[in-house]
Description:
Blueprint: H1 2-21, E1 25-29, H2 33-40, H3 49-62, E2 66-70, H4 72-75, E3 95-97, E4 103-105, H5 106-114, E5 117-118, E6 121-122, H6 124-148
Parallel strand pairs: 1-2
Antiparallel strand pairs: 3-4, 5-6
Helix pairs in contact: 1-3, 5-6
Amino acid sequence: ERRRAAHVxxxxxxxxxxxxxxxxxxxxxxxxxxxxxxxxxxxxxxKSPATFQSELKRKxxxxxxxxxxxxxxxxxxxxxxxxxxxxxxxxxERIHRDKTGIVMQRDLFSAYLSRFVTDDMLAIADAxxxxxxxxxxxxxxxxxxxSLSTTPRAESGGVRFPRRKDV
Length: 167
């Protein structure tokens, strides 16, 4: 158990460092780890998201960056269209089909919109006006994600955790 915990911690630290290589100013949704525990039970401890998030915050701030959390209820990024309209989706719907005709992977589109959140308010007009310049970057990220998901490692999210017999 101790070795598994050490492995999880090292994987989390590796991922935190990878994220911070791309930028020191982090914006993230306020997520309820308790909600994840209700949904996924003890399996959530294999990833330790609360520890990951606190380590990301600590390292971003110590590197001179910032760590900002915003409300998921007020912004509803995965439901928001560039027209400003909100359309509720099932969690299983992974493709965002925007009212403006844009088709994008749901998490990538939400991440794009998060750039325009300030004080729990989404500046949708700014997001809409700047989207054409960002579309190619998002499409390339989506394509890279799709090519990763064809590899056997990607089935577990790209991270392999040791099984009991491996430890």
